[in-house]
Design a protein that fits this description.
Strand content: 15-25%
Strand order of the largest sheet: 15-18-19-14-13-21-22
Shape: globular
Helix content: 25-40%
Number of helices: 15
Largest sheet: 7 strands, mixed
Structural class: alpha/beta
Radius of gyration: 24 Å
Number of strands: 25
Length: about 475
Amino acid sequence: MTSTTAFWLAGRQATGETTFDVTSPWDGRTVGTVSVPTDAQIEDAVSAAHAVREDFAATPAHVRAAALDHVSRRLVERTEEIARLISAENGKPVKWARGEVGRAVSVFRFAAEEARRFNGGEAQRLDTDAGGQGRLAFTRRFPKGVVLGIAPFNFPLNLCAHKIAPAIAAGAPIILKPAPATPLSGLILGELLAETELPAGAWSILPVPNDRMPALVQDERLPVISFTGSETVGYAIMDSVPRKHCTLELGGNGAAVVLADFASDEDLDRAAQRIATFSNYQGGQSCISVQRVIADASVYDRLLPRIVAAVEAQVTGDPNDDATDVGPLVSEAAAQRVESWVDEAVGAGAKLLTGGKRDGASYAPTVLTDVPAEATISCEEVFGPVLTVRKVDGEAEAFAAVNDSKYGLQAGVFTHDLGTAFRAHRALEVGGVVIGDVPSYRADQMPYGGAKQSGVGREGVKFAMDDYTYQRVMVLTGLAL
């Protein structure tokens, strides 16, 4: 029998009056049973966070850094155990789950480093005008208040880390709501944080059902909301609390552009392999997975069969097997949605070159061409192992095709030309341009986020800390400068 996993209320374990089961999307087995906090317990967590906010902001940097370092080390020690847990509750192939744990290790390490150097203050002389003679401005950053972090299912450990670690580093209390489908990985972070000396109330991890989220969102004691998830939910949150500070990391339909100078056999083999891998990794359930391939006409006919072959070489199956590249989606309903979008596109005239088959929660890696511009799969984020390939004539048309989207998260441009790289950086309406690779590259310390309907604000430890804090200036008077 599976034991019940407690949640974390103001740094201590607690159990509620009801539970829910977490099941594997691969085989339907029960991975864990999780206790659900009551309304009174949620109130206790919010009250504790609100009460400790000033003391936590004043906590010495070495205390916060030591706690973050501890979590980073413990993640290393428990890598295989946690990777297997991620794979079990999410369906992610275990080799990708190990990579996710490694990234979380880095996030907490980066946060520890930032905690030690963040907010050292900046001095600015004011005697550049006569009225400022004898005055000096000194500016530091202070937390805006308690952070409500809402994490998604696709990276159930690392995206929880991206909420928790920057908040602790900045001295902002945080209440984390993990995704209901994948709460166990986030709750593991509670185990590790409980081993530290952070003050009670500095953090809580509450597996709250989605239908009880609005009350947390509306609570005035939680002035900062950091959300990663769908465009629909993210903007609904922002619209419901227009006076709160919201950071939203939302959807994308990442484009990989292959230009005319990327034309050798070696170049095209590499592009095809990277495109195939990163349209299907995590089952395509990544905001920056490759969904659209935009190829110059001069390389299209040689690139397309390479992409199809590389996609067909992806190993699908049991996520517990180290050889598996592509596992199931998070649920059968998710796979059914992907199936319906592909069927719609094919019915409207798209050509299916490979894939297009569903088995329960699994969907075969799929390649489409000649997809109508109005098809759902052209306009929305598929969040599944499907890519479309399009032929264009020249750089300008390629960049226009990338921008012909309501989303703007990241784009990849396969080129060797430095001038083209800088033109892409200027022209593409996205949060990140990756030259010589797919859009799916992300370093956890860099600013990460989108333009247009891909969200507002930036993740990446230091940049999230900036979002969680505000500048406060002190003017010193009567100084001999």
